[in-house]
Amino acid sequence: MRDTVLWAAVDDYIEEQLVPEEDGMQEVLAACDAGGLPAIAVSTAQGKLLHLLARMHGAKRVLEVGTLGGYSTIWLARALPEGGRVVTLELDAKHAAVARANFARAGLAHAIELREGPAADSLAALHAEGAEPFDFVFIDADKPGNPVYVDWALKLLRDGGVLVLDNVVREGGVIDAASENSAVLGTRAAIERLSREPRVSATAIQTVGAKGYDGFLLALVRG
Ligand code: SAH
Ligand code: DHB
Ligand code: MG
Predict the structure, then answer these.
(1) Whose CA is nearest to atom 3 of ligand 2?
(2) If pLDDT is split at 50, 70 and 90, which confidence band does 1 have?
(3) What is the pLDDT confidence band of residue 23, given thresholds at 50, 70 and 90?
(4) pTM for the full model?
(5) Is the CB of 19 under 6 A from ligand 2?
(6) Is the Cβ atom of 167 under 6 angstroms away from ligand 2?
(7) Which GO terms describe its biological process (predicted)?
(8) CB of 140 closer than 6 A to ligand 1?
(9) Which residue, judged by its Cα, is nearest atom 22 of ligand 1?
(10) Residue of 67, 167, 207, 216 to test ligand 2 pocket, by largest number of atoms within 8 Å of CB
(11) Cα(29)–Cα(7) distance, integer angstroms
């Protein structure tokens, strides 16, 4: 088997054994597909990882940058205790409409606030409003925006908050210091920002699976 075929087959096995079909999650992806959204949501196994990280951390307030059709948002919202909230930020009105319909169908509209517009503006507005600090931030929008999103996350997270940054490996592209690819440049700048920040303790895990070769950066942020 070619590696990518093998990785996808192992993801199938992991899902079969450890991620039993959750109510309505396949419908969420079907609605994204029917709405013509790109198939760039986190994989099922990765959605469950985000869900478990949020639950393990006891996150009550979650911030997501980059909603798409709300697949990762719903995994995160299902990790919340009673009264918890996800605030999710999306630029594209078409993506936001599909996501809102998915939240309503999943019975989670009350727990999810979707803010439409450029994430940098929404993040600045949250800060200006004096939003209650977040326990957990998942950044997964346009990659050139990563340094700005990481900066806001450091301001919006509580002391002891968790930051997860998606797509940090990019099939190994992240180590190309001469890259002119804006996604690589944005991701490298975000990683350098975090590495210089004394309040942050971080690592990254490389991932293979149904979505190919990529990775997550995980960070704990002190106040
Ligand atoms: N987290 C989603 C996938 C997000 S894909 C999931 O796993 O299910 C990235 C999303 O970021 C896209 O929907 C894209 O429209 C959005 N995006 C791109 N640029 C943005 C910006 N400047 N502000 C907010 N969202 C943006
Ligand atoms: C893309 C964006 C993502 O967040 C992702 O997980 C995969 C692909 C993209 O823009 O191609
Ligand atoms: Mg992503």
Answers:
(1) 40
(2) low
(3) confident
(4) 0.98
(5) no
(6) yes
(7) methylation
(8) yes
(9) 118
(10) 167
(11) 20
Three-class HEC string of the chain = CCHHHHHHHHHHHHHHHHCCCCCCHHHHHHHHHHCCCCCCCCCHHHHHHHHHHHHHCCCCEEEEECCCCCHHHHHHHCCCCCCCEEEEEECCHHHHHHHHHHHHHCCCHHHEEEEECCHHHHHHHHHHCCCCCEEEEEECCCHHHHHHHHHHHHHHEEEEEEEEEECCCHHHHHHCCCCCCHHHHHHHHHHHHHHHCCCEEEEEEEEEECCEEEEEEEEEECC
Q: How far is the CA of 1 from the centre of ligand 1 (A)?
A: 33
What is the rounded average pLDDT of the residues 192-213?
97
Domain architecture of the chain: domains with CATH: 4-221 (3.40.50.150)
**Tens digit of pLDDT for each residue in 79-89?**
999 999 999 99
What confidence tier does 22 reach under pLDDT thresholds 50, 70, 90? Answer: confident
